[in-house]
Amino acid sequence: MKKIMIAMAAFCLMCACSGEREYLNFHGKSMGMSAKAMVDSLKAEGLAVDTHATSETQIVLADTVKQNYMVTVYQHNDTIQDILEAFTATYNDSTSALWQTLHDQLQKELDIWPGMTHRADLHKEAVFDTDKGTIVLTLLNTYSPTLSVRYSTQLDHK
Predict the structure, then answer these.
(1) What is the reported pTM?
(2) Of 46, 66, 68, 141, whose CA is between 20 and 30 Å from 95?
C-alpha cells in the first residue's frame, strides 16, 4: 500500500512538472520570450537603446521624445529575469495618480490583492505575487518623483 501511495505521488508530481511554465506578460508580450526578441519588440514601439547604460546583463531602453520613461531588461544568457519600467515626473501628483491607476489595473487584471509593504504618501509599494512571476509597483515621491514597476520571472518575492 505504501509503495502504491509513493508511486501515485511521484506520478502526480511528474504530471505537474511536465507542463510548460507560464510567464507574466509585459504589455502583452510574454516574458518567456528571449531578451533579444523583447528588446526588438520594444524598439519597434519607439524606444531607443541607451548604449551608455546597457551592459552584458541589462539592456536599457528610453523614450527619447518625452524623456520621462525608461525600460530596463535584465537578462542572463538571453533569458529575461526582470523588466524594470520607470517613470519620472516633475511633480508628485502625476506619479501618485499613475501609481493608483496601475495598482487598480494590476489588481483587476491579476485578480489578486497585493501585499503592501509601504503605505505612506511619499513611499508606496505593492507586491503582486502570482504563479507566473512577481510584479512590484513602487512609488517614491521625493525630490525627483519616480514610479517603477518591476516584472520578475521569480516566483516568490520574499
Answers:
(1) 0.81
(2) 46
CB 114 within 8 Å of CB 128: yes
Grid coordinates representing 142 are: 521625493
Whole-number Cα distances in Å, 132 to 26, 118, 135: 12, 23, 10
Task: Kindly provide the b/e burial profile for residues 10-46, where b requires at least 16 CB atoms within 10 angstroms of the residue's own CB.
Answer: eeeeeeeeeeeeebbebeebebbbebeebbeebeeee
What distance in Å separates the CA atoms of residue 150 and residue 45, rounded to the nearest whole number? 20
Mean pLDDT of the chain: 83
What tens digit of pLDDT does each residue of 16-61 get? 444 577 899 999 999 999 999 999 999 999 999 999 999 999 999 9
- Of 42, 78, 30, 33, give the one whose Cα is nearest residue 57: 78
Lowest mean pLDDT among 1-10, 35-44, 128-137: 1-10
